[in-house]
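Budget justification aside, the reviewers requested a transparent look at the raw inputs and outputs of the sequence design task funded under Objective 1. We therefore reproduce one unedited record. The lines immediately below are the structure tokens for a 495-residue chain.
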């Protein structure tokens, strides 16, 4: 409360002039309230340590957003500064171990339209919020950087080589976006990062340009307690949305309606957007892991896959569940899905700190084999699919370099960092093994988020139903879609 009051008071001081009413901050925060300045400063200190004395790092923030959408800073820039305005730059001087933020000047016209935006004129406020040592204007960056480089002992400039992660975009999607553009004979533009590297080489010839991404990636691998707390909130919201889908889904519901109810839950509880587009895939759409068209009407007897999570304060989750559209699993579905749940729990139950992913896979595969040997299947092809599933997991456990159980989650849905070696405190990831029956176009997959602590693994989404009886019981309850049915036209009026 004190922090919020201070910000409002400070803004009034900064913008007050005699005879003019003081400017009061709008309800939306000017700066993140999720992290204190000390946390951003600690992250920057680790960058200084990694890049060495004398080197200079230059990080480019996100450009102006296209269209009437909320600005969202790139993950990398936000991670080191918390600043959420476009066309900002951060310089980390390894010699002096001082950080300078370069911001644009105040744009009064835009502020009258959109509300307060942080600018170079907010020097004292920006320093108090982000913990940086200095704030300067963007047009001073070239001269300041040249002076730093001449005074420093190193001839190395660090900057980002990989495409910056943005709204609902992990590194893999950023690379795909740039690759697609480069391969287009009528486009061919390089990435924004490549263009920036070219400018640095042109303006500071003779200096070595090194990649900053590996340093930041490894820092982001281990989450702080505050980061974990935000990820928990994102996971809880994702789980609540899936539970509401279980209540609302029935034959005749369209996939995009489930997307809509999830968005309501996310935004109602403070999410700033989607972690990724909603994967609401019914019946024959489920085998496509990234299906997102949302146009199909669900049919009786089908299974629905829902894989969807929000962006909460620049941190994500990634949760998946399956459910029967009719509210009841058929006999064959109960057999196959029931086996999958037992196999899936074999993995969850063995995740713990201090062991490698391969060791966990070997232990889980042995337990899966025992379950398979005693499991009854009515349909022979379902048993064959279960056998293939177990054999595939056994093979993965033996494969050298198979260092992940799933994928990392953090500021991106597919987060950065190297997961090789034993699981360590602060790692956050998901598991999502898939069982396929190709001849029936049948696909079963679940996904849970795990946080590794010093002495145990926390299954953050463990309250989300996965057992058959729990899912069926929840689906008997009335959902949002039933309480608020679709409007229909009556005499030219939607009612």
């Amino acid at each position: 409360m004190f922090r919020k009051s201070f910000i409002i008071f400070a803004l009034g001081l900064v913008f007050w002039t005699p005879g003019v009413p003081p400017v009061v901050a709008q309800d939306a925060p000017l700066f993140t309230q999720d992290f204190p300045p000390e946390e951003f400063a600690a992250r920057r200190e680790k960058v200084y340590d990694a890049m060495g004395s004398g080197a200079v790092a230059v990080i480019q923030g996100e450009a102006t957003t296209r269209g009437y959408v909320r600005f969202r800073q790139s993950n990398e820039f936000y991670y080191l500064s918390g600043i959420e305005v476009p066309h900002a730059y951060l310089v980390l001087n390894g010699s002096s171990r001082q950080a300078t933020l370069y911001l644009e000047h105040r744009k009064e016209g835009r502020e009258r339209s959109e509300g307060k935006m942080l600018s170079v004129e907010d020097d004292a406020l920006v320093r108090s919020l982000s913990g940086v040592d200095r704030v300067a204007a963007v047009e001073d960056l070239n001269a300041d950087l040249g002076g730093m480089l001449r005074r420093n002992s190193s001839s190395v400039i660090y900057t980002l080589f990989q495409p910056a992660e943005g709204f609902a975009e992990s590194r893999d999607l950023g690379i795909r976006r740039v690759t697609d553009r480069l391969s287009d004979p009528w486009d061919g533009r390089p990435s924004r990062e490549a263009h920036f590297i070219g400018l640095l080489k042109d303006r500071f010839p003779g200096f070595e340009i090194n990649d900053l991404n590996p340093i930041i990636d490894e820092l982001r691998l281990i989450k702080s307690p505050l980061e974990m707390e935000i990820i928990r909130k994102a996971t809880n919201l994702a789980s609540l949305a899936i539970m509401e889908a279980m209540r609302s889904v029935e034959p005749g519901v369209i996939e995009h309606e489930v997307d809509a109810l999830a968005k309501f839950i996310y935004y109602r509880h403070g999410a700033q957007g989607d972690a990724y587009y909603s994967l609401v895939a019914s019946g024959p759409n489920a085998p496509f892991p990234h299906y997102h068209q949302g146009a199909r009407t669900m049919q009786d007897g089908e299974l629905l896959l829902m894989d969807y999570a929000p962006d909460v304060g620049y941190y994500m989750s990634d949760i998946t569940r399956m459910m029967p559209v009719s509210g009841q699993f058929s006999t064959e579905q109960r057999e196959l899905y029931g086996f999958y749940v037992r196999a899936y729990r074999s993995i969850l139950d063995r995740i713990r700190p201090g062991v490698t992913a391969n060791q966990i896979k070997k232990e889980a595969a042995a337990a899966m084999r025992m379950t398979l040997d005693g499991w009854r299947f009515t349909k022979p092809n379902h048993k064959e699919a279960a056998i293939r599933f177990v054999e595939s997991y056994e093979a993965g456990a033996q494969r050298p370099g198979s260092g992940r159980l799933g994928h990392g989650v953090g500021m991106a849905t597919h987060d950065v960092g190297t997961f090789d070696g034993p699981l360590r405190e602060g790692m956050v990831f998901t598991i999502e093994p898939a069982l396929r029956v190709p001849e029936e176009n049948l696909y079963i997959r679940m996904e849970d988020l795990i946080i590794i602590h010093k002495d145990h693994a926390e299954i953050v989404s463990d309250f989300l139903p996965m057992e058959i009886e729990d899912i069926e019981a929840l689906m008997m309850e009335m959902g949002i879609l039933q309480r608020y049915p679709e409007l229909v036209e009556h005499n030219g009026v939607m009612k």
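The chain has two domains: 2-221, 225-483. The domain at 225-483 is CATH 3.90.230.10 (Creatine Amidinohydrolase). Computational costs for records of this kind are itemized in the attached budget.
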